[in-house]
Design brief:
Layout lengths: L7 H6 L7 E4 L3 E5 L9 E5 L11 H21 L4 E5 L15 E6 L14 H16 L1
Antiparallel strand pairs: 1-2, 2-3, 3-5, 4-5
Length: 139
Amino acid sequence: MAYDTDNIFAKILRGEIPSERLYEDDETYALMDIMPRADGHCLVIPKTPCRNMLDASHGQLSACMNTVQKLSAACMTGFDADGITLQQFNEAPGGQEIFHLHFHILPRYEGIKLRPPGQMADFAVLKTQADKIRAALAG
């Protein structure tokens, strides 16, 4: 299937839609998920087009995983988390809803379940959570 240049992440990368940016390098972009299932739920995407890991290049996957590791450590620190859940979905039957490769990083705590999907975040709360991650990255 062809890459859709009008997906939400492509629009974010072009600056057409705002996002709460956490981290950026030449190859990747990290941002807060606007429908978080946990406090600190964030996303890592490549800056170049690919639908998912099935058509991603080795370079795209490697760059994303380097950023995922960096952001996961920052989430552990910034949220004093017990662990991290990493999610990545491929094609609609695999649960993918946005067809641009993205990795979900969810800080986790012993005995606390994820919130249900599809609930929009309070943007002031997202910014406060993003500040914790950015401080841990700087730190």
